[in-house]
Specification:
The protein is built from 12 helices and 6 strands. The chain is an alpha/beta fold. It has a 6-stranded mixed sheet with strand order 1-3-2-4-6-5, with helices on both faces. Strand 5 and strand 6 form a beta hairpin. It binds uracil.
């Protein structure tokens, strides 16, 4: 996938902001990218740029959501859905991202984990949960006999890395949602784990946060008529910052294990 016209220094700055947990405003990032492009010496080789999206101005947010819906509906397989997500130009986050982090793991697995969105490493590799938080997620899943190599499919509610690792906005989540629902329908999981508050709140359209949602059994219903039990858990990145919460996370994992045993 082609990359936007970003200098390594600016990408490093974005990564550094992200690691420091600083929220970078998108307009701020754009201004920096513009300044860097103007400052580039004429002899410096130009990175391939995405074709200008003049059409964007002619489409409203609702138009883009409808386009996402049509593209998602038309996808008859996960490979087609991945191609549709990668080709979708409705989300501005794509402009500064290196890759869409669509999914990883086993297609059709009984358990589907849905996180919040890619960080720096996920953006680089184009796969969800491959950074530090992903390594902890793998250990958490492993503790109850789950693994992305055998019985778990992993994705996010947003496919492109937000600048400075800020949370995705409601509009960005809305643009991805048709793809998320279709991914659930194509995978048909027996159980869904929502990793973190952003994911749980967005999937359930809930107004309460993860502190109240974790430890509860919910249901996700897609527009296509698929439904599955959904368990919100603490995000592994949160557990890296707050290891004292691991005992509650462990209880939640045991609850999920019990449910899976019941489902058979
Ligand atoms: N956090 C997420 O929620 N998803 C990822 O893919 C990586 C980190």
């Amino acid at each position: 996938m082609s990359r936007p016209d970003t200098s390594p220094a600016l990408r490093a700055l974005q990564d550094w902001w992200g690691e420091m947990g600083v929220d970078a405003d998108e307009a701020e990032i754009r201004a920096l990218l513009k300044t860097a492009a103007q400052a580039k010496p004429a002899s410096e080789p130009q990175a391939p740029t995405r074709k200008p999206r003049a059409i964007r101005k002619e489409k409203t947010h609702e138009d883009w959501v409808e386009e996402a819906r049509q593209l998602a509906l038309a996808a008859g397989s996960l490979a087609e859905l991945k191609a549709a997500i990668e080709g979708f130009d409705g989300c501005l986050l794509k402009e500064a991202a290196q890759n869409a982090a669509c999914f990883d793991g086993v297609e059709g697995a009984p358990v589907m984990v849905i996180g919040e969105g890619p960080g720096a490493e996920e953006d680089r590799q184009g796969k969800p949960f491959v950074g530090r938080a992903g390594q902890l997620l793998d250990r958490m899943l492993g503790a109850i006999g789950l693994s992305r190599a055998t019985n778990v499919f992993i994705t996010n509610v947003n496919y492109w890395r937000p600048p400075g690792n800020r949370n995705p906005t409601d509009e960005e989540l809305e643009l991805c949602r048709p793809f998320v629902d279709r991914m659930v329908e194509l995978n048909a999981p027996k159980l869904i784990i929502a990793a973190g508050g952003v994911s749980a709140k967005s999937l359930l359209q809930a107004s309460i946060g993860i502190m109240k949602l974790r430890g509860t059994e919910q249901v996700l219903k897609t527009p296509g008529g698929y439904s599955a039990p959904l368990f919100p858990i603490f995000h592994p990145a949160f557990l890296l910052r707050r290891p004292e919460e691991k005992s509650r996370a462990w209880r939640d994992l045991l609850q999920i294990q019990g449910k899976l045993e019941g489902i058979g």
